[in-house]
Amino acid sequence: MNKTELLVIGAGPAGCSAAIYAVRAGVQTVIAGGAMPGGQLLQTSEIENYAGFVDPVGGFDLMDRMHKQCKRLGVEILSDEVSSIEGEKSPYTVTMASGTQYEAHAIVIAAGAKARWLGLEGEDKYKGHGLSACATCDGFFMRGKEVCIVGGGNTAFEDALFLAQFCTKVNLIHRRDAFRADQVTVDQAKANPKINLVLNSVVEEILGEDSVEGVKVKNVKTGEISQIPCSGLFVAVGAVPQTEFLKNSLVALADNGLVLADERTHTTLPGIFAAGDCADKYYRQAIIAAGSGAKAGIEAAAFVNLHRK
Q: Between the chain's N and C termini, which has fewer beta carbons within 10 Å?
């Protein structure tokens, strides 16, 4: 069995930051990054809001820099995924999809989350070409344009208010006429003249050749089909934490699959920490994931150094 002091699960901003802080504290660190290490940022064409970059940086480029930084500091990055974690105290046994096993004194879970999409035919071709699941990431590219957003929770309404600051019109499409969002947020959206509520409706089709040019919408009560012209479609129907591999472990999860962790990234098991989107129900931002990863790396290093024989 392979052994390491710290095993980080995930090679996105949270995982890389955790590894960087831990290895600089003298802790032997391995990252299980999977076949495509980098997380959701690999699908982001331009990032304008990551501090330190005067010009926009591509998601792939940003993650490539983080991976090279990790390797320069001595972190080993595996192109293997974790399938299970066993044990109720350190050291833990981590089994990879390939069957390889590691004994790890500490673990940082930074497996991320993936956006929940609409499941429309041909949806993939529009991702990065007007279709996005992150208004705060990509909304600025829609300034001066008309957009649509799908959802009925706080995220959808907050995104609509955000987009209305620089878009000419925001069509919020929701399958019902009641909302999960806070009433105060709903009232703010209703009072904004740029926000148009399209209720009891679902998106049937995305229109456009090479990028989003509109959506075909169906009223679920009347069956009426209509088209809404737009340059961007934002999906705000939730995210799916990448935590399936924890279902049979003793790490506590919320009902929605998020890892339960405190403000210092400690989970319910000693020596196991969680950072980034797999433990964050609010922000889903790269820079916040990186910050929580740094906290997890510091905490994990302190745990390893305290228990090192």
A: C
